Amino acid sequence: MVTVHFFENSTNVLTQLRQEIPNVDQEIKIKGRKGKVLSVNQLKEDVFQANVEFEKIVKKAALATDSKKRKR
Question: How many percent of the chain have pLDDT more than 90?
Answer without folding.
Answer: 54
